[in-house]
Amino acid sequence: MKLNPAIMGFIKKELTQALRDPRLAALIFLVPIIQLTIFGLAISSEVKNIRLTVVSRPGDYLARRIEERAGASGWFSAVRIDSPAAQDYAALLREKRTEAVVAVPPEGLSRALERGDAKIQLLIDAANASRARQVEAYVKNVIALALADNSQAPPLPPVKLDLRVLYNPSLESAIFLVPGIMAMILCIITVIVTSMAIARERETGTFETLISAPVSTGEILAGKTVPYILLGLAEIPIIIAAAVTLFGVPLRGSLLQLAGAGFIFVSTTVMVGVLISTFAQNQQQAMMGGFIFLFPALLLSGVMFPVENIPEGWRLLAYLNPLMYFAKLLRNIMLKGGDWGVFWTNIGALCAIGATIAAISAARFKARLN
Amino acid sequence: MNFNAARALAIALKEMRHILRDPFTLALGLGLPLLLLLMFGFIIDLNYGDIGLKVQDQDHTRFSREFARTFSSSGYFRLEPFSSEIAPVSWLDSEKASGVLVIKENFGRYIKSGRQGGAQLLLDGADNSKTGVVLSYLAGIMDAANRKFAQTPPRNSPEIRTRFLFNQELNSRWFIVPALATVIIGLLGVLLTAMTVAREWENGSMELLLSTPVSPLEIVAGKLLPYFALSLTGTVTVYIAARLVFGVPFNGSQIVYWTACSVFITAALAQGLLISVVARQQRLAMQLSMISGLLPAFLLSGFIFPVESMPVFFRYFTMILSPRWFMEISRGVFLKGAGFMELIRPLSALLAINAVLITLAVKKFKTDIEP
Predict the structure, then answer these.
(1) Which of A31-45, A63-77, A203-217 has the highest mean pLDDT?
(2) Cα B198 off chain centre by
(3) Which pLDDT score, from 0 to 100, does residue A104 have?
(4) B37 vs B72: CA distance, rounded Å
(5) In this complex, which of B118, B154, B306 lies closest to A162 when CB atoms are compared?
(6) Considering only CA atoms, which of B23, B34, B354 is closest in space to residue B184?
(7) DSSP code for A222
(8) Is residue A52 a contact partner of residue A123, using CB atoms and an 8 Å limit?
(9) Rounded to whole angstroms, how far apart are CA atoms A266 and A162?
């Protein structure tokens, strides 16, 4: 196959230009790793570090057991016992000094239990509803454990549930999140870099020069997209290496599947970038156009929020989102070893969406050139 | 340096006309708050329900059915039974379920005879969004199941009554919608300001402006005023939507809230200005504001992922980020009715960050324009 020299020239020029600018090179190669690190480490939907206050008469044995049990459970970061002397519990919660308050009867829990009508009040800061629900379950669990310690023979619960989280048995949030975040980062970078690069040419007027040059519009389009597809592809091994070495994310599937999925996805997002640039007059507009695409794309990708939970009508948007398919593919290939049925279904969907976007943006790109 | 309010205002008016003429900036300034409200108000629902759970019942007794029913009657799960020929793991490998419940043989017999009935729950460890949700419901469900099967009610067990303060109905929208103001200011205040001012540097019109008799301080004030207004408009939009559309209560003081808003917006604008002076280029300004403004506002502020759950390093690191403090204030004021005294910590942190950012921005701006 003989490569078109015009396109080759374009590719060489774009790549040299992109890599010569140290800041752009940093954006392409360094920033993804920083982002991966921050998100892989910081974000977690797990409930941890709950601050608990047990309000009780000093010296109450059971209240101290609750405190000890909570401290040993690993869910709580600060557990303290407070005397019931006219504390306004709601104010404690309002000032964020504590997240949950366990208030035992004034005469002490041990004595109240002996008498037989012990009532425990549990106050939880429910500003974050889903966290509050979990805090309630944890605190109740700790109370149950503390009481079980107290009775002679703690009865076993009737159901023994063997809980297994497959592919990520120790529930490391980095393993949960990193493949999805990799897909997000790849999406952001390729869309923004492509659309801004073309918009900059338009802004500085070099695009007009191109039109007057003896190259066809197809060649210009190829020359403007292929370099960014290559850059995007070059990024994949870098973030995968970071994911595997920094976070210990397993790579169980075949590299071939990964490369195939990566190629189709990056081609799609580069074409999205081209499409955005056809609407933009300058870099600022390109960036904003990028946002208008990226915001819904990231939020409806299933990486942070489950797609199944989106109301019926809106779910269609998620099914049109290339990022959703790629995130699913990346998770399946990296963590589950790449099921071929999943691979072909998602690749098929991705191809269909990619081809549609490519057709629309090529048509618009050519229309704007002529 | 002399400061003439009229001249600053003239620049502000000119900048305002620029924004009004540029459909993209205007669309972002007004459309983005609406887009975010639409996404987080209607499309993304944090009150999860209807999670598909595959169930393999190897026991087929009253007990096993009762146990499965505990899952479905919690309201969170939709049960999909399957026969024993299929390997449970295959549902997860092929992405057809987010969880598989297997109820072991002799489940009922064991429970009747006082031993433990066995069951297994397989969850998809590749999908944090769903697995996290399932795990959060699990403790409550198991608690209910064990209570149901317990032969004798446990003696001496206290009655635990839970009160959920500040949000009795556990409506997650109350958590998310008021917090959108933080994200919107993070985007409009930092990013838009940084980009626009960087554009002036990039095409040289800033130098031109500086050579006029207008003082640098007037230029800065004039440039920033419209973005202050734009950010404030976004915040007001969120406020109105939260109160009228989503029925979020506002229990605190209006004065505290809007004062904190102004301080936070000022901090965001100062950050944007600082970025633009450092970057001098739109592309770089955009990257810097994404990394230092938008992403922290979205991901490190506690907007969705609570600061409390972060590793120790990040819990301290987020203290230098103004969005984290404003988030605390806005939730405190809206839901908890926290007053000035109760918010003294986040308010003073916000003021301190604000002072640092303004000092840095003005200093950098001044040294840059001196010949």
Answers:
(1) A63-77
(2) 28
(3) 83
(4) 31
(5) B118
(6) B34
(7) H
(8) no
(9) 41
Which tokens belong to A201? 């040419």
List CB contacts of B159: < 8 A, sequence separation 6 or more: A117, A118, A119, A120
Domain-wise residue ranges, chain A:
50-148, 172-364
**Are the beta carbons of A98 and A104 closer than 8 angstroms?**
no
Of A188-202, A241-255, A341-355, B135-149, where does mean pLDDT reach its minimum? B135-149
CA atoms B216, B217, B219, B224: torsion sign:
positive
Contact B170 A132 (CB under 8 A): yes
DSSP state of A308: G
Global confidence as pTM? 0.85
Q: Are A157 and B304 a contacting pair at CB < 8 A?
A: no
Tokens of B234: 């976004």
CATH superfamily of B51-149: abc type-2 transporter like domain (3.40.1710.10)
CB A139 within 8 A of CB A122: yes
User: Is residue B347 a contact partner of residue B253, using CB atoms and an 8 Å limit?
Assistant: no
The alpha-carbon gap from B344 to the nearest alpha carbon of chain A, in Å, equals: 9
CA A130, distance to chain mean position in Å, is: 18
DSSP state of B290: I
* Residues of chain B contacting residue A158, judged by C-beta atoms under 8 Å apart: 111, 116-117, 145-146, 149-151
List pLDDT tens digits, range B72-86: 998 888 899 988 888
For residue A1, what pLDDT band results from cuts at 50, 70 and 90? very low
- Range from A323-327, B124-128, B186-190 carrying the lowest mean pLDDT: B124-128
Are B150 and A94 within 8 A, CB to CB? no
User: From the CA of A216, how many Å to the nearest CA of chain B?
Assistant: 29
CA distance B209 to B219: 8
SS3 A69: helix
Q: Contacts from B259-262 at CB under 8 Å and sequence distance 24+?
A: B260/B326, B260/B329, B260/B330, B260/B333, B260/B343, B260/B347, B260/B350, B261/B181, B261/B185, B261/B232, B261/B235, B261/B326, B262/B232
What residues in B contact A130, CB-CB < 8 Å? 46-48, 133, 136, 170, 172
DSSP letters for B41-74: III---S---EEEEEEESS-SHHHHHHHHHHHHT
Contact B342 A91 (CB under 8 A): yes
Kindly report the nearest CA distance between residue B277 and chain A, in angstroms.
16
Side-chain-side CA neighbours of residue B212 (13 Å): 12
User: Whose structure tokens read 């090179």?
Assistant: A25
Split at pLDDT 50, 70, 90, the class of A289 is: confident
Topology of domain A50-148, CATH: D-Maltodextrin-Binding Protein; domain 2 (3.40.190)
In the DSSP assignment, the letter for residue A309 is G
- Which of B48, B164, B312, B335 has the highest number of chain A CBs within 10 A, making it the mutation to test binding with A? B164
The verdict on ipTM greater than 0.90 is no
Record: contact A50-B161, CB cut-off 8 A: no
CA distance A88 to A107: 18
> Residue A161's closest chain B neighbor by CA?
B119
- Domain regions of chain B by residue span: 5-44+170-367, 51-149
Say what angle helices A283-299 and B282-289 make with each other, to 10 degrees. 30
Could you tell me the two tokens for A191? 């869309």
d(CA B18, CA B254): 32
Question: How many angstroms separate the CA atoms of A252 and A360, rounded?
Answer: 36
Cβ neighbours of residue A260 under 8 Å, at least 6 residues apart?
A: A347
User: How far is residue B86's CA from residue B212's CA, in Å, rounded to a whole number?
Assistant: 79
